[in-house]
Amino acid sequence: MNMRTERDRKSRVLTGNEAAAFACKDASVQVVAAYPITPQSPVTERIAQFVEEGEMNAQYVCVESEHSAITVCIAASTVGARVFTATSANGLCLMHEQLHWAAGARLPLVMACVNRGMAAPWTIWTDHQDSISQRDTGWMQLYVEDNQEIYDTILQAYRIAEICHVPVMVCYDGYILSHTAMPVSFASTEQIQALLPPRTPAFQLDPANPYNFNLVTMPEPRKDHEGIFEMGGYMDLRYRFQVELKRSEEVVKSVHDAYANLVGRKYGGVLKTYAMEDADVAVLAMGTVASESRVAVDRLRAEGLAVGLVSLRLFRPFPGPALADALNRVSQVVVFDRNVSYGHEGAVASDLKSHLFSTDLRPRVSSLIVGLGGRDVTADFLVRGVRQCLDSKEPVVAGWLGVLGDSTIRPGR
Question: Of 7, 23, 61, 117, which is closest to residue 339 (Cα–Cα)?
Fold first, then answer.
């Protein structure tokens, strides 16, 4: 593996984008293709520097668009390489067609999505609308809270992807993490090798042993060309993918635990909890809104309110049972979504309600939309949102907190 010298290995102060680049280097990524877009660009700029200086034995492919970038990664992964790309916002949406292709082809790609709001109007600041809008493409999605978690999660993502044969998107907030410097500790060469052995694909393109990949698939099952094995139709393949994607939640947990045992850093697997042991009210959030919510929880606790936090790390596949277990003793849940499913409500709130409907749990779930386009989300702001939800006679549905001309939230029923 291409690693830093021993004196550099322990830790550095890095931006989130640099942490992602170092994780790719340490994962022995072999092919990188990306197109620059703010605030993602420094990730692959740093990787390009590693390659140019001989610190990383990889092919860096310059392309003319994000659609081409993901296409290069699909081709490289198909021939057996470990690959990486990164993007944001409209660049991610330009990849949309090929995101479906990568997932349907069961390729273990890893992508850093540096979350940024979608145009129009034009914005370069953060929210989760870009990745949330790709939630149905079949990619796993992991959301992180700080730069250390970016580094650790990208390493874990390669192991998860290569076990499950599913692409993984590691999402982190633009500017708040991507351009903010924090101490980041590195895993050792031995620890990384224990977690992440070289990729050994079950099938890959080889002129000496040719295969056909992703042919036109018929609706109904049929025999193979020799008339021996029954081949699934399109719907059968999609069913298998759905079943295996749901099972991947256990792989996320097992890889997380294996990594925690190696390096001593834990992130809860699919979700993290804080002060939930005796909580009657839970805050549910992702990314840096979740990390800021810890401060809000402490302030509400100081006022005598039994409030805790659930930080959702895995959004796809949606870990409904784990969430239900974490929330099984609370009477209310306040969901802070940094996204909106237009015409409905925040995606996390909607998915939570959908899962709880099939259980016996009936906490009052309120949905608040916050922080779109980089609007600041402070602890004071979150405290106010929780208080207003608790004071409301009805659950708040798609309440918008702090918008121009309306600094209050209103029940949306």
Answer: 117
Q: Rounded mean pLDDT of 316-341?
A: 97
Domain boundaries, the chain: 6-195, 271-400
- pLDDT of 348 over the 80 cut: yes
* 352 close to 333: Cβ distance less than 8 angstroms: yes
Helix axes 66-78, 96-104, angle to 10 degrees: 10
Q: What is the tens place of the pLDDT at every residue in 66-85?
A: 999 999 999 999 989 999 99
Count CB-CB contacts under 10 A for residue 242: 12
- Its sign, for the CA torsion 55, 59, 64, 67, is negative
pLDDT tens per residue across span 83-124: 999 999 999 999 999 999 999 999 999 999 999 999 999 999
Per CATH, the architecture of 6-195 is what?
Answer: 3-Layer(aba) Sandwich (3.40)
Indicate the pLDDT class of residue 4, thresholds 50, 70 and 90. Answer: very low
Q: What is the 3-state secondary structure (H, E, C) of the chain?
A: CCCCCHHHCCEEEEEHHHHHHHHHHHCCCCEEEECCCCCCHHHHHHHHHHHHCCCCCCEEEECCCHHHHHHHHHHHHHCCCCEEEEECHHHHHHCHHHHHHHHHCCCCCEEEEEECCCCCCCCCCCCCHHHHCCCCCCCEEEECCCHHHHHHHHHHHHHHHHHHCCCEEEEEECCCCCCCEEEEECCCHHHHHHHCCCCCCCCCCCCCCCCCCCCCCCCCCEECCCCCCEECCHHHHHHHHHHHHHHHHHHHHHHHHHHHHHHCCCCCCCEEEECCCCCCEEEEECHHHHHHHHHHHHHHHHCCCCEEEEEECEEECCCHHHHHHHCCCCCEEEEEECCCCCCCCCHHHHHHHHHHCCCCCCCEEEEEECCHHHCCCCHHHHHHHHHHHHHCCCCCCCEECCECCECCCCCCC
pLDDT at 142 over 70: yes
Same fold, 6-195 and 271-400: yes
Q: Beta strand pairing status for 222-223 and 230-231?
A: antiparallel
CATH number of 271-400: 3.40.50.920
